[in-house]
Write a structure and sequence with these properties.
This protein is mostly helical and about 140 residues long. The chain has one domain. Helix 2 packs antiparallel against helix 4 and helix 4 packs antiparallel against helix 5. It is elongated and about 60 Å long. The termini are far apart.
Length: about 140
């Protein structure tokens, strides 16, 4: 029984970090779909764009990688939350880099379901997430 109690002693921290992570993902989704000039959900829901699904999936994955790194390396929940916000900003910057520097017609290309544009955005999002997670160590 002592072994079970020892194993479960970390459960409160797990629940706090996991709930905070889910909240961060929901906040990220809420902001991300508003800063993109196209409506991912209607493009995906109406089966109009595989490209929008790939791009949005890459954005989620990239951000989840980053907050996973923040959770793994944080010293407390406040530290995790600060780095979670910083990671979110980095992901938004990644979108801006692709949209304004790499693929100036990104919006139109995603709306036209041009898969290469979505793949580039997804790969940049995941890449930034990996770099972000790696840099969140001290």
């Amino acid at each position: 029984m002592d072994m079970l109690a020892g194993l479960l002693s970390g459960l409160p921290n797990f629940l706090i970090y996991f709930a905070t992570s889910i909240a961060f993902v929901l906040i990220f989704k809420f902001i991300y779909v508003r800063i993109t000039p196209y409506d991912e959900w209607s493009l995906i829901k109406d089966d109009k764009s595989v490209t929008a699904a790939v791009a949005l999936g890459g954005a989620f994955l990239g951000y989840c990688l980053a907050i996973a790194g923040a959770a793994q390396n944080s010293v407390n929940i406040i530290d995790f939350m600060v780095w979670g916000v910083i990671a979110m900003v980095a992901q938004f910057i990644a979108f801006a880099i692709v949209r304004f520097l790499l693929l100036k017609e990104l919006t139109k290309r995603i709306e036209n379901d041009e898969l290469p544009a979505g793949i580039v955005l997804a790969v940049v999002s995941v890449s930034i997430g990996i770099l972000n997670a790696a840099c969140l160590t001290y």
